[in-house]
Structures are given as structure tokens and as C-alpha cells.
Amino acid sequence: MARLVQKFGGTSVGDVDRIKNVARRVKREVEAGNQVAVVVSAMSGVTNQLVDYVREISRLHDAREYDTVVASGEQVTSGLLALALQAIDVPARSFLGWQIPLRTDGVHGRARIEEIGTEAIERRLNDGQVAVIAGFQGVTADNRITTLGRGGSDTSAVALAAALNADRCDIYTDVEGVYTCDPRIVTRARKLDRITYEEMLEMASQGAKVLQTRSVAMAMRHRVRVQVLSSFEDKPGTLVVDEDEIVEQQVVSGIAYSRDEAKITLTGLADRPGIAASIFGPLAASDINVDMIVQNVSGGGGTTDLTFTVAKSDLDRTVARLEEIRKDVGFSGIVPDPDVVKVSVIGVGMRSHAGIASKMFEALASRGINIQVISTSEIKVSVLIAEEYAELALRTLHTAYGLDQV
Amino acid sequence: MARLVQKFGGTSVGDVDRIKNVARRVKREVEAGNQVAVVVSAMSGVTNQLVDYVREISRLHDAREYDTVVASGEQVTSGLLALALQAIDVPARSFLGWQIPLRTDGVHGRARIEEIGTEAIERRLNDGQVAVIAGFQGVTADNRITTLGRGGSDTSAVALAAALNADRCDIYTDVEGVYTCDPRIVTRARKLDRITYEEMLEMASQGAKVLQTRSVAMAMRHRVRVQVLSSFEDKPGTLVVDEDEIVEQQVVSGIAYSRDEAKITLTGLADRPGIAASIFGPLAASDINVDMIVQNVSGGGGTTDLTFTVAKSDLDRTVARLEEIRKDVGFSGIVPDPDVVKVSVIGVGMRSHAGIASKMFEALASRGINIQVISTSEIKVSVLIAEEYAELALRTLHTAYGLDQV
Questions:
Q1: Are A75 and B76 a contacting pair at CB < 8 A?
Q2: Is B22 helix (H, G, I), strand (E, B) or coil?
């Protein structure tokens, strides 16, 4: 007997028939003798509708009321799935965040989980019942509803799996697992059977949308075995596990990309100590996250160029902030460029293998693709290139690292 | 300074613009120096959609999960109205049933209110804030969400007005108040400025849909001054008050009708003591409510006829139950007739005025309308007639009792 947490996303519970389908899938695990807790998202489209209502009423809304409104979507699905389970003779009950209770801090709209009361859920599981948990939501110490941020149901599921000491956390979604690259672009992409937490974390934070970064970080911290699999097909997905559970590690496991960043170059910058801090300090204070940074070698006349990337959605705000500090800091030009894509090659094997980065640079050069910015970590190499080369670069790299399906 | 409870129904909060409109209306009361608690229903159509989801999944549903699902509609509206108030600089916060807490018994789907914690709301009101309360919902002692039955937001509002010792409970709806008769049928119907609790209770239970019977009974018990008024027009509505607040009482205040009843006649019934109990006992045990009853004078041969009415929605079930007991009880025929309407003339003045009933019978006879069943109470005379005469009967009686608008 195992204890499982299953999580179903918005498309998996998109209508009544799909909810019934989910119930049958849950039943199969119950009949196999497992204890099952299920975490559900809102029916697809519902959360967006609720967010639209809030925005129509007020741009600068009270995040506590926002949370009260949008958390209702998961409430509906949890009740409906409990009913669908009962209808096929699986005893079940729904749990809302405040009923568990799943305690969070008071940062409404993107609250962090502080503590999960497991007593009520454990009692149900030990009774052979299925606990159906409304994802994405929690409750503060003063009994206000909070939400964990978009995609927060993944985080709910992993946190619950950790709190319940579950043997596995199955994240059901609309893809079959984690791929070596986005299969909509690279048709030869392969589904990975296993991937390490570290790689999954890089994949998620470098643009792969299959799992929320935060939920992967939590899984890694608590060593929760996570499986990503399709709710529409009946086959095993990708297991996210400890490195030592993977016998034969690939050097490169996957290639991620992100179109969500924009590049900014500051020209004619005084080349003096503390200049970087005088720029990135004000940006950080304005809650603007900077990702890649490269400072060019100083040209003549004591000036240099500085290039960095920010979220595309922050571009206008960033340029405005830079204009404000231009005089004080002293630079001659601000050159924004939203037409870039970040491509990242990821693999824990990099730690022990040399030449991964140079293979990347050579492969891109062979296609005439210019690299604008480079950043690396222990298990990742990222480059920024012109957006028009995105697909070509991904296919080229996929082949170069021997990832193509045979 | 007065303390008010305002309740807005589903059509009044049917979309974002209407919610903003409600916010402006609430603001006006706040600016007039009043303390305001607002009770809201779900946006029109939402509750029906949620109920449909539940029914698609399971006909025999767990009422606890049903409540979890359908209560979400009021949750959304309460959050949105709080936001709309804040957007026009009125401090406000939402309260869900469990946050108040509004404690109910465990009869899910039609729970009864047991206790209302007023401390948190009072604190907000005394702070000059508006408390926006999700109507229709409560919470059991073991923290499950309950609902009060359809139209339960009226009950929430009146109960809250009683608990908060409010000076008035304003029920905003899509009509301008309580009319002498349904103005869609009787064009000369007049809006009443005042009506007594007793009359309003009879009006509601005899078919007038403007207020839920249960909320009127509660208002009467706790002497809550209730006003029914339009959320789309800006004029006073109808005040439901104690009899001694009405200086010049009409003999007849209004005429109600209900198409929701069906007639059943049992023929060839043995005319012996205990025969009625042998029929109505089993029906009551099957949760079938019987309204009007008339037993005809015994014919020859020791047999008689018995006529009574039940809710139209219970007709098939009633006939089936009667078939089961036909042999034991002993009657020859079951004659169901759904094509009837119950017309009721209501007024506290009847207590001191004779001739009200006979005027009714004469007026109907003058139009050739046959009366099938009669029942009376201290302040009401009801008759059952063929449905095809409904409109004619209402107009005739409205004129006969001098209720027509001049």
C-alpha cells in the first residue's frame, strides 16, 4: 500500500465529463490499495474569468478580496470531484484551505505555506476515504483566505505530499511528461523517464512550463518524488527524483527556452567602481528582477556598455526607471530590445563533463546564430539570441547533444 | 445615525456594472452617516449553473458537497462588492459564513441558523467600515459549509439585522415593493407603502414571490423592520412592520395566487372515523405536504369523496403513494388535476370586518367562476379554481375589494 497525492490541473477538470474521468482515475489507485489525497485546480477558464471581474472593478485591488474571489474556483472543483467519486462508490470529502487548515503567511495573492494540519486528512485516508483538496488556497492566522499565486496548485500538492509523507506526488497535466525540449518545436524531442530535481528546477526556471519552479524547489527540499504525467493518456510520465536514483545520467538532459525576457543595453556608461550597484539597486527597489548581466570590456575614454535582461512585462517600467536615474548615474543611451529569446542547455552531467558550453557555441555559430549574452551555472548554460532564430537554435542544439528520438 | 442591513439579490449584482451600482447605493447610506452591513446573493445565473454541475454528476448527491459548491457564488459577489466599495473610497471587507461565523445546524441544503457571531462585524461597523456578507451560507459546528435553501439570502439578511439590532433591513430586488397583486397580471395593482408582518407572511406563503416566507417569519419573530425596494429605481419601497405602525388599515391589503399546487380527489372513500389519518399519515411520512383539504358530505352507501392539494412537483409521487395504500384504506378512484390555481385574499382587517369571504364568493360567481375548495385563516381566504380563470379572478377581486389604482 502506498500513499499518493494526485494533482489535476484546470484542463483535466475542465468540464463535468472530465471531472468524472478524473474520478475514475482516482478510483483505480484506490482499488489498487493506495491511500489517495487529490489536489484540484479550478475548471479551466474559471480563474481567468474571476480575475477579469476583479480587474474590471479595480486595478489597484485589495489582495485579500482578490483572494476571496479567485479561491472560489478550486472550491467548486473540490466539491464536484468529491461528488463524482461518491457517485462511483468511492467515499470522499472535500477540504478547503481553511478546513485543513493550510496556514500561510499574509502575503495575499502569492502567499507562502507555513504549516499544514494533517490530522483531519490523515483520519480520512486511514478510513479508506479520498481527501479532495482545493488547491491554490490557504488561510491566514486571522482567518482570511489566501492564494499561492498562479500555478499554486502544484505547490499545494507537493507541500501536502511532504506533510503527509506521501510515497509519490503525481502531477496530472495535458502533456505526457517532461520532454528533452518543447515537442511543438522540436518534433524529435523525447519524453524523459526520469529527471533530477536540480535539472527540473533549471528547466522550470529557464522557461519549461510543465511544472511551477516553486513546486520543484519544494519537492527538492523535502525529497518528494514527483511524477508528471498526462490525465488523458494511460501511461507512465516523467519521474522527478534524486540524482542517485538515475543510473545512467545523460550529460545534457534537456533544452529549455524563454521568450519572456527582454534585453536592455546602456551605452556610454562611466567605467568606475560601484556603477553596477547604482543601476541595479534602484531597479531592485522597484521590484524589477534582473536575470542575465554582461558588462563589456571598457572602450576608450573611460566608458563602457552594460547589457542585461528583465521580464518582458517589466520592460517599459524598467526603461522609465532608468530614465529617472540617467542623470545621476551617467550613461548616454538606453537601447531596449524585446526581440530576444533565452536558450538553455541543462544537465547534471555537466559537473563532470567538459566542453558542453563550447559545443553549444560551435553548434550555434555553424548556423550563423549570434550569441548576445551568456550566463552559466553548475548544470546549465544559457545564451540570449535574436528571437527569429529560436526554433533553428533549439533543433540544432537538440541534435548536437544527441537528444533526438531514434 | 442608524444601523442598516441592505440585501441585494442576484439580478441586482448580475454583472460588474451592477455591482458598481450597488456600491454607489451603499455609499449613499454611509455618507448619510449610517452604519451599513450588506448581504449579497450570487450573480444571477451562477447558482443555477453550479446546481446543474452537481446534478450532472449525481442525482443523489451528498448535500455537504452540494453546499460547498453552490456557496461559492455568494463568496465571489461578496469579494467583488467589497472591492467595488473600496474603489469609491468606502472602506469595506467581505465576510463568508464561516468567517462571521454564522452557525447553523447540520441540515445541509436547507440549514437553520443557530447563532451569529457579531463581534467581528460590529467592530468593522463601529470603525466606519462596511461589512459585506456572503448571503445564503453558514457553517456547522464541525466546520462544513451549509446553505440555507433557495432564497436564503433574505433569511441571512433578516437574521443578521436581528443579531446586529439593526434599525432596518432593506431588501433590494427587481420590483419596487410589495403590490396589492401581481402587476404583470393586474395592471391597476398598487404598490403598498406598508404591510404588516402577518399579511406579508400570508402573501409570501400564498404565492407572492417578493420575499421568502422564512425570512418574513423571522422578521416577525424578532420584530425586524423590513423594507422591500428596487435596486434599479431610487424611491421608497414597501415597509413590513408591526400592525400598530399602520394607522389606517385596509380591510384587504392584497391578493396572492399560486400555480404551484395540484388537486387530488379520492372517490368512493369509506366514511368511517380515522379514514383521514390513514391517508395523510402515509403522505406525511413520505415528506409530502398537504395544503387545502375538503371532505364532502357523505353520499349514500357509507362512502364519501376527499379532495386535497399538494405541491404540483409532488403530484406524481403522491399518486404513486396513494396507489400503494389504496387497498388497505379502501377507496375506488384517484382523480389528479394539475390545472388549478389558488387565489388568496389577505388582510388583517378581516379580523374586525365581516363579509370578506362572501364578497369573494359573490364576485367570482358573478363571473361564472366555480370554487372547488375553500380554506380560511384569521386574516386570509383562499379558494381553488380552474387555472384558466386565474387572471380574470385576480382582476375581478382586485376591483371588488377597492384595490385598483385611481
A1: no
A2: helix
Cell of B125: 461597523
Q: Residue A300's pLDDT is what?
A: 65
Distance, first Cα to last Cα, chain B:
37
Given a cut of 70, whether residue B216 has pLDDT beyond it is yes
pLDDT at B298: 62
Query: For A272-276, B117-121, B144-148, B377-381, which range has the lowest pLDDT when averaged over its residues?
Result: A272-276
Q: How many helices and strands (H and E) does chain B possess?
A: 12, 20
Smallest Cβ–Cβ distance between A83 and the set B58, B79, B83 belongs to: B58
Q: What residue in B sits closest to A47 (Cα-Cα)? A: B76
Residue B251 has pLDDT above 70, yes or no: yes
The residue of chain A with its CA nearest to that of B139 is A99
Q: Tell me the average pLDDT across A352-356.
A: 85
- B183-204 average pLDDT score: 93
pTM of the predicted model over 0.80: yes
Alpha-carbon distance of B40 to B172, in angstroms, equals: 10
Q: What is the pLDDT of residues B305-338, one digit of tens each?
A: 899 999 999 999 999 999 999 998 889 899 999 9
Chain A nearest-CA residue for B77: A69
Please state, in angstroms and as integers, the Cα–Cα distance from residue B129 to each residue in A66, B38, B221, B327, B334, following that order.
18, 11, 29, 66, 61
Nearest by Cα to A374 from A356, A348, A391:
A356
DSSP annotation of B334: E
Q: Enumerate domains of chain A plus CATH numbers.
A: 3-174 (3.40.1160.10)
Substitution target in A13, A46, A48, A76 with the highest count of B β-carbons within 10 Å is A76
* Cα–Cα distance measured from residue A131 to residue A224, given in angstroms and rounded to the nearest whole number: 19
CB-nearest to B19 from A57, A75, A94 is: A57
Return the closest-CA partner of residue A317 out of A293, A336, A332: A336
Q: Is A338 within 8 Å of A312 (Cβ atoms)?
A: yes
Tell which residue, B141, B234, B144, B229, has the closest CA to residue B191: B229
3-state secondary structure chain A: CCEEEEEECCCCCCCHHHHHHHHHHHHHHHHCCCEEEEEECCCCCHHHHHHHHHHHHCCCCCHHHHHHHHCHHHHHHHHHHHHHHHHCCCCEEEECCCCCCEEECCCCCCCCEEEECCHHHHHHHHCCCEEEEECCEEECCCCCEEECCCCHHHHHHHHHHHHCCCCEEEEEECCCCCECCCCCCCCCCCECCEEEHHHHHHHHHCCCCCCCHHHHHHHHHHCCCEEEEECCCCCCCEEEECHHHCCCCCCCCEEEEECCEEEEEEEEEECCCCHHHHHHHHHHHCCCCEEEEEECCCCHHHEEEEEEEEEHHHHHHHHHHHHHHHHHHCCCEEEEECCEEEEEEECHHHHCCCCHHHHHHHHHHHCCCCCCEEEEECCEEEEEEEHHHHHHHHHHHHHHCCCCCC
- Best to test chain B binding among A52, A55, A69 (most B CBs inside 10 Å): A69
Residue A349 buriedness (CB in 10 A; 0-12 / 13-18 / 19+): middle
Q: CA A138: distance to chain centroid?
A: 19
Q: Quickly state the pLDDT bin for A212 (edges 50, 70, 90).
A: confident
Q: What is the pLDDT of residue A119?
A: 96
Judge residue B394's burial from the number of C-beta atoms within 10 Å of its C-beta, 0-12 exposed, 13-18 middle, 19 or more buried.
buried
Q: Is the pLDDT of residue B247 over 80?
A: no
B342: which DSSP letter?
Answer: E
Facing residue for B57 by CB, picked from A65, A78, A80:
A80
Contact in structure between A381 and A286 (CB atoms under 8 Å): no
**pLDDT score at B255:** 96
pLDDT over 90 (residue A277): no
pLDDT recorded at residue B177? 93
